[in-house]
Amino acid sequence: MAFELPALPYDKNALEPYLSAETLEYHYGKHHLAYVTRLNALVEGTDDDQKSLEEIIQSSAGELFNQAAQAWNHTFYWHCLSPSGGGEAHGPVGEAIVAEFGSFSAFTQAFETAALEHFGAGWIWLVKRADGGLEIVATHDADTPIAHHQTPLLAVDVWEHAYYIDYRNARAKYLQGIWQLINWDFVNQNFS
């Protein structure tokens, strides 16, 4: 079974002005595609050939884990964004954010702090704990909450390739723009 690069849930220019079509050309069309292509080369003719991405992530390490996790993480990330997204969290996840962090503003501040303090490449996640509460988690490189039996609700890619074309090294400006795109409907689906 060959893995395929899933279609973006919107046109490549749909996230402008916060993320340009050029950024998506490189991030989705080159980086994400490269993870899927390399993953297929690694699993071809092996026992992993018939596994799902999640099964490979749970049972592998090293390069195979990295390629599978990055393929999964990126697909998840694209769905966390929407041209009609942004605004404050609503629905059950909005209520859970206020219950956990005190306010939506306190949540965004904590999330941005985690993203700005994260050294090097990785991801910032909002995850649902087993007790139903929420937690902000930072992972390095390809690491992903599903490898640790956590339920990811929201992901923001903080690898420089996610924002360098549009923001150069200004991660803080990228984060300000990302809040205008968050797909809270998708986050709520993950929460339920």
Automatic annotation (TrEMBL):
The residue ranges of the Manganese/iron superoxide dismutase C-terminal domain are 91-190
Question: Binding residues for Mn(2+), per the UniProt record?
Answer: H27, H74, D157, H161
List the EC numbers from the record. Answer: 1.15.1.1
What is catalysed by this protein?
2 superoxide + 2 H(+) = H2O2 + O2
Chain ranges of the Manganese/iron superoxide dismutase N-terminal domain: 3-82
* Similarity field: Belongs to the iron/manganese superoxide dismutase family.
The record's function comment reads: Destroys radicals which are normally produced within the cells and which are toxic to biological systems.
For this entry, the protein name equals Superoxide dismutase
Q: What is the lineage of its organism?
A: Bacteria, Pseudomonadati, Pseudomonadota, Gammaproteobacteria, Oceanospirillales
